[in-house]
């Protein structure tokens, strides 16, 4: 197995054999536990994967990305996701600022299937990073534009992309430095609150239990901050206070529990919150 994997890894360095090697290696992500270190420590491999990403940039504007191009670059992104989630290579991945190469894909707005697949796969790489609950991941992401990019997708993406983008925001908020960052200024907080509010209104028309779960968890975490909690008392959507989501909540006890905690936080004015810079 290892010799076959190394053969495909070596083929990544050759533009003529790279496309097939990307496809074969992406199929082996689950079955080869140490694929990430093998990719990272082999000569020229990460450069080849980044070349695949950069080669797509001209197809973003104007949006001319084809299904074949999208599939090919998404196979490269799948391998980078493997590197991002592996404990031995994750720090190297961040130190090399590789997530930044994906941000142009998250800036796209075309609704065609190739672009949607590209955005979703790119979000998957960031999602794999935040899933690890490592402080260095949040610290890195807060130095980038990931929050406004996620908010943009949360407002206008497909349901699946919205779900992954909201999950990323949720993970950032659950970290103390992430909550502090978002609640540091009124502009940051209000941008998040406005998008979450729009999502609630949209979910009232087209329910999704999975997406609602992440939205409610974001609101609950924001309510841990004293000034954000005060603002939420005024701007929490009525749909979260009335019976709009009863059907969804019956099917998901954890979301129902989080929502009841959120309402309780807003009603009781619990003053136990993280001390951060005041909202301006």
Automatic annotation (TrEMBL):
Any one cellular-component term (Gene Ontology): P-body
Superkingdom of source: Eukaryota
Compartment annotation: Cytoplasm, P-body; Nucleus
Presence of the UniProt keyword Cytoplasm in the record: yes
Entry keyword Cytoplasm: yes
Main location: cytoplasm
GO biological process: mRNA catabolic process; regulation of translation; regulatory ncRNA-mediated gene silencing
Keywords, comma-separated and alphabetical: Activator, Cytoplasm, Nucleus, Repressor, RNA-mediated gene silencing, Transcription, Transcription regulation, Translation regulation
Family: Belongs to the CNOT9 family.
Stored PANTHER family: CCR4-NOT TRANSCRIPTION COMPLEX SUBUNIT 9
Protein name, UniProt field: CCR4-NOT transcription complex subunit 9
Species of the source: Clunio marinus
